[in-house]
Specification:
With about 250 residues, this protein is an alpha/beta fold. The protein is built from nine helices and six strands. Strand 2, helix 7 and strand 3 form a beta-alpha-beta unit.
Length: about 250
Amino acid sequence: MAEPVIRSILLDIEGTTCPVSFVASVLFPYARERLASYLETNQGDPEVQALLAATQAAFAADPNPEVQALGQGSPIPGQQQLPAGETQSPLVAYLQWLIDHDIKFPALKELQGRIWASGYANGDLVAPLFNEVSPTLQCWHQDGYQLAAYSSGSVAAQQLLYRHNQDGNLEGLFSHWFDTQIGSKQATASYSAIAAVLQLEPAEILFVSDALAELEAASAVGMAVRFSDREGNPARDAGPFMAIKSLADIELP
């Protein structure tokens, strides 16, 4: 029986098409520093009010001792402190704590996306894609492969990154975008759901990621997978999967 033909390429972003350092060292600090001013400027926006209400509910229910200390106005060891005489709302401090601990809270992701949108629009932010990403994506698109992105960052944040990078607007090369709304990236059910949306058999999809647990979940439902082994990635163990140093290393029929 013939091997299934790959028809769609599903790509992780951080550590796969863009350096991990851009997210951790540029995007997160950019949003963190501007949270207070953004919320003050947009406090009358009903959508922002709804995001803050969701954050307040999570803040009140969070059992973490550090979070409880924030609610009481106590400083947290290791957290950046404000200059003497300056104050900050506990809610902003909680959002910053979530950023510092890389917690995937939906309301925070939405607020970060809004702040990043402004930064991309005014030129503060330009995404540094790996050098081969743009020509490889364009080649795959021209050859008829369906391109999709799957990241823990929101769909809006994914689209901003591909719209504002050193190689120009690449957003139109992608037909589908997935974030954790479809499920955890470590859950096999997420990849079955993605295959259903793409209207393909899992074996017709190639998933590329730098996270071994994600590849294991995708492989378990029958997807072809490749491990992205980039310099600077925190994990370099490909497990039983084929590793690549560049998207250009991927051989497709």
